[in-house]
Amino acid sequence: MTVYPTAIPGVMIIEPRLFPDSRGYFFEAYVEHDFHRLVCPEIRFVQDNESRSHHGVVRGLHFQLPPHSQAKLVRVVEGAIIDIALDMRAGSPTFGQHVAVELSAANHRQLFLPHGMAHGFAVTSESATILYKVDSPYAPEYDSGVSVLDETLGIQWPFPISDAILSDKDRCRVAFADFATPFSYQK
Fold first, then answer.
1. 185 and 116 in contact (C-beta within 8 Å)?
2. Distance CA 182, CA 19 (A)
3. What is the pTM of this model?
């Protein structure tokens, strides 16, 4: 695999090595040894999640609060999304900034989000199936997020956010400036 850093420290784009032939292709989506050597040695994934959404759906910007915060490794196996990582870590040189990466079944890219990132995505294809690994199980009482409708974040969604299909919970999330972050940046 090839790993590309993004503008946010710790957020990485991962491209697997593809082996195409006349039958189709093969690639290793996750090899723990390579992930630890090239991306993050201390992460141990404990849960795989799958999400399916239709065009126009925006999910996010989600995270779990400490002590159940989650690092994530996200990929798309059907369709395409614009995936967002928002830095929530106080003291980070990129606090409040985000990166947007296209993940698709066609490009096979994955996005690694370390602890302290809010995560969201917009579905740009007819539908999309997203798989993601997390290093802490889902803990509903620690579920949190900030609003995708917060224009001060400067996220360029692929369609007007006012037209997005949002859950009631995501429609009512607080603005970034109104959230007291429990996350801190560590080099």
1. yes
2. 43
3. 0.95
